[in-house]
Amino acid sequence: MSTNVRTRHAIHYSQSERMTGTELREHFLIENLFAEGTLQAVYTHYDRMLVAGATPAGDAVGVGGELAKLVGTDYLLERRELGLINIGGAGRVIADGKAYELQPMDGLYLGQGTREISFESLDASTPAKFYINSAPAHTTLPSRIVSRTDAIENNLGDGATSNKRKLYQYLHPKVLPTCQLLMGLTRLETGSVWNTMPAHLHDRRMEAYLYFEVPENAFVVHLMGRPQATNHLIVRNEQAVLSPPWSIHCGAGTGAYAFIWSMAGDNQSFTDMDMVDMKSLN
Known about the structure:
By secondary structure, this protein is mainly β. The protein has helices spanning 13-16, 21-28, 65-71, and strands at residues 2-8, 29-30, 38-44, 50-55, 61-62, 80-86, 91-95, 98-102, 107-110, 117-121, 130-136, 144-146, 152-156, 165-171, 182-188, 194-195, 200-201, 205-212, 220-224, 231-235, 239-243, 250-253, 258-265, 274-275.
C-alpha cells in the first residue's frame, strides 16, 4: 500500500487572473485521485479540506501516519471528520474494527476520534473507488452509512435549458449531523449538460467538485473565477476541481455526466448562496 500526499496553497483571485492555463490546472485541478492499490490525497488551504481517493485492489488500503503528520496530530481524525462516497465497485471500510459495506453510490460518515481506517474491495476485478473529503471538527458525532436511498433526492433544472438533473444530499443536516462537512452527488439527465447555472458564490464556504461518469472521449468545461473575470478548466473523468470562496463553480460537458460536490466553512446552510446575474458574467 502506498500513500501519495500533495498540498495546495490558497490563491488570491488577483493571482489567478494572471495565470496561464497550465498554472490554473496546477493550482485548482486534481488530475490523479484514483490509482489501484493506493491512497491519493491532496491537502488544501481552503478551509483545510482534505480531498482523497482510495482504490483498494488485492490488499486493503489504509490511512497511515503520512496524513496524521500532515495535519499535525497523532492520527488523521483526532480533530477531524471524514465523509466519502463510493463511485466504484462494492467495497468495505474498516473503522476502529467495525466494518461498513458500501455498494456503488453509497456514502459513509466517520466522526472525530476514529483512529484506524482501511479500505477494501469486495471484488478485486471491480475495485471500489472511495472519494474522500475530510475537514476539521469540533466534536464527536456518530459514524454511519448513508446509502443511496438515505440521500435526499432533489429534481432540478429543465430540459429546455439543458440542465435537468437530480441532486442527492448525503452529508446534510436533514440526513445526519456533521460538524461542518457537506457532501452530495448530482447526476445530469441525458440531453442536459449544464451544472449549477445560473452561477453563484458563497464567500463563507469553499467547494470541491469531483467529475465522474464522463466518457473517455468527453470532457467538462468547468467555469471558475470571479463573475467579472471568469476562466475555465478542461476536466476529464474522475478529476476534481478546487473552488475557492471567491470563485463561481459551474460548467458544461460534451454530454451528460455526474459530479460529487463537497463544502466546508463557516456554516451548513445549503441555500446560503449569493446568486450571480447571468448578464454580469464576463
